[in-house]
From TrEMBL, chain A:
It is found in: Cell membrane. Pfam families: BPD_transp_2. One of its GO terms (molecular function) is branched-chain amino acid transmembrane transporter activity. Its main location: membrane. One of its GO terms (cellular component) is plasma membrane. This is ABC transporter permease. Keywords: Cell membrane, Membrane, Transmembrane, Transmembrane helix. It comes from Tardiphaga robiniae. The chain crosses the membrane at residues 6-24, 31-52, 58-79, 86-104, 135-154, 186-207, 213-229, 236-254, 266-283. It is a multi-pass membrane protein.
From TrEMBL, chain B:
The keyword ATP-binding applies. InterPro entries: AAA+_ATPase, ABC_AA/LPS_Transport, ABC_transporter-like_ATP-bd, ABC_transporter-like_CS, P-loop_NTPase. Keywords: ATP-binding, Nucleotide-binding, Transport. Residues 2-250 form the ABC transporter domain. The keyword Nucleotide-binding applies. This is ABC transporter ATP-binding protein. Pfam families: ABC_tran. GO terms for cellular component: plasma membrane. It comes from the Bacteria. Involved in beta-(1-->2)glucan export. Transmembrane domains (TMD) form a pore in the inner membrane and the ATP-binding domain (NBD) is responsible for energy generation. Belongs to the ABC transporter superfamily. CDD domains: ABC_Mj1267_LivG_branched. One of its GO terms (molecular function) is ATP binding.
Length: 304, 252
């Protein structure tokens, strides 16, 4: 049971990172990144391939973060004139292209065979048998750092500007600020976090192949942000936790409900998640969390 | 000084909104644009602010040709504007709406947030003081922490004016500032504008409230069908029979 709990919590941490990245890009910035899974996949592949080449895993992780950040920034530059729906289409197309390249450029990525034997960072630190726990601690630390940084950004003048471009980019232009500059930075920071999440995915499973990555990763991240409340980092972490535990925990329904087969259960689980989401959108359309403020009239809480 | 010289604008579908219109906003004055609906006032405003690009003619800001520069570029050179239909940043608070306009904020740079936190905080505190002074003038400070989307139509107009003034602009373009504003508040806007004009700020005003135009404007342009029909002091212009038929006649 403990093993299962540790495994699930590790998945929660990775999902929380993806959710936090999307919360910056879409929740705060209004940029619909349907290609999230492509950036996540790229992070996993950069980290995985570099690690099996013999690079220290933490260095590979750093390269993955920078690489995904750079490519994210580039994709934001390309889609500068695109607003909501079109940006969604472009990012989705971008991610699918990336997946095709990774699937078929076998000389570089080992194609459909996948990359195996990816070593985890800092494995020598933990006593024998505690590797999974150690990795979980590392993943939780990553979530904590990213959460702290994003909270500080959200309360800062930068966060205010990001939310302003979401509400009305035309006004931000009329105030003399560069909307493109804001969007590129938001995509780059979100990309770095997605690179981190993808790297942890690669380290955790120690094996990656293209079938592990698909739009469902994007869908879960959007669910986390919708449930958590757009703009609320705290809400996103909490809802990533809830979502993964619901998805994972509902496996045990098979023990509780007699006559339920594995395939039926799989379908019912997804069905329940869908019902839950629709109910939430009806009864609490803004989600549970609240967006942080950059400044308050009494000045006491305008700290970041 | 801001001027448009012989500007023409053709919208998609071929509608000619402006047809060789020229206006001048002399430094330190309030210039009014009046005319019937559809005369091209707001389009001309967009051309002056940089939001609408003319197919012919040019725009000069302080003598420099700025026709090809967009609204952000012009805003950085001291040109602020408000919108005909309020465009408040709905999910931001009233205070944040004004703060976001503050120019040169190091806190908007991600690296400065890391390396010069103290400078960022000092700038933020100074910006809050400046925003408070503006909001108190229009009696919005008591709503500082309310989301701007919850304000009334008139309050949103006042908020937009505060936001524009946060830029410390040399020139302010106001598109129907009195629309939807409580009559007592209109007096406040008039006083506000007069005080700033006395300090040297230049204003351009599109307005349907003739009382406000009479009180505020040093110079008035009358537009009709995309062209300047006539110009001059308000009382002289209004005495012109052509104007009466083009504009006032249309109202009575």
């Amino acid at each position: 049971m403990t093993v299962y709990l540790i495994a699930t919590l590790t998945l929660v941490a990775i999902a929380a990172l993806a959710g936090l990245a999307l919360n910056l890009q879409w929740g705060m910035g209004g940029l619909v990144n349907f290609g999230l899974f492509g950036f996540y996949m790229l992070g996993a592949y950069i980290a995985g391939l570099l690690t099996v080449q013999g690079l220290p895993p933490l260095v590979a992780l750093g390269v993955a973060m920078l690489g995904v950040a750079a490519l994210s920034a580039l994709s934001a530059l390309i889609s500068v004139r695109l607003s909501e729906d079109y940006l969604a289409i472009v990012t989705l197309g971008f991610a699918e292209c990336l997946r095709l390249v990774i699937s078929y450029e076998g000389w570089l990525t080992r194609g459909m065979l996948g990359v195996s034997g990816i070593e985890r960072p800092l494995q020598a630190w933990w006593p024998r048998g505690w590797g999974d726990t150690g990795f979980l601690l590392l993943a939780l630390l990553a979530v904590l750092i990213v959460y702290t940084v994003l909270q500080a950004l959200a309360r800062s003048p930068f966060g205010r500007l990001v939310r302003a471009t979401r509400d009305d980019p035309g006004v931000v232009e009329a105030l003399g600020k560069s909307v493109l500059g804001v969007r590129v930075r938001v995509f780059a920071i979100g990309g770095a976090i997605l690179g981190l999440a993808g790297s942890l995915h690669a380290f955790y499973y120690s094996y990656i192949d293209p079938t592990q990555f698909g739009p469902i990763i994007t869908a879960y991240a959007f669910m986390a942000v919708v449930v958590g409340g757009r703009g609320s980092n705290r809400g996103v972490v909490a809802s990533a936790f809830t979502l993964i535990f619901l998805l994972e925990g509902s496996r045990f329904l098979i023990d509780l409900v007699p006559g339920l087969g594995a395939s039926e259960l799989a379908a019912i689980r997804l069905f329940l998640v869908g019902v839950g989401l629709v109910a939430l959108l009806i009864f609490k359309p803004d989600g549970f969390g609240r967006e942080p403020r950059s400044a308050l009239a009494d000045k006491t809480s305008s700290r970041f | 000084m801001l001027e448009a010289v012989n500007v023409s604008v053709i919208y998609e579908g071929g509608f000619k909104a402006l047809n060789g219109a020229s206006v001048q906003l002399a430094a330190g004055t309030v210039t009014g644009l009046i005319g019937p609906n559809g005369a091209g006032k707001s389009t001309l405003f967009g051309v002056l602010a940089g939001a609408v690009r003319p197919v012919a003619g040019e725009v000069r800001l302080g003598g420099e040709i700025v026709t090809q520069h967009g609204p952000a570029w012009r805003a950085r050179r001291g040109l602020a504007r408000t919108f005909q239909l309020s465009r408040e940043l709905a999910s931001l608070t009233v205070l944040e709406n004004v703060l976001v306009a503050q120019p040169h904020m190091r806190g908007e740079n991600v690296l400065s947030l890391l390396w010069s936190r103290r400078a960022v905080r000092d700038e933020e505190d100074a910006a809050i003081d400046k925003a408070r002074a503006l909001l108190q003038r229009v009696d919005l400070w008591k709503l500082a922490d309310a989301p701007a989307g919850t304000l009334s139509g008139g309050q949103k107009k006042l908020l937009e004016i505060c936001r524009a003034l946060m830029l410390d602009p040399r020139i302010v373009l106001m598109d129907e500032p009195s629309a939807g504003v409580n009559p007592t508040r209109i007096g406040e806007i008039v006083e506000f504008v007069q005080a700033l004009r006395a300090e040297g700020t230049t204003f351009g005003l599109v307005e349907h409230n003739m009382g406000m135009v009479r009180l505020l404007c040093d110079h008035v342009y009358v537009l009709a069908e995309g062209q300047v029909l006539t110009e001059g002091r308000f009382d002289d212009v209004i005495a012109n029979t052509e104007v009466a038929s083009a504009y006032l006649g249309a109202q009575s």
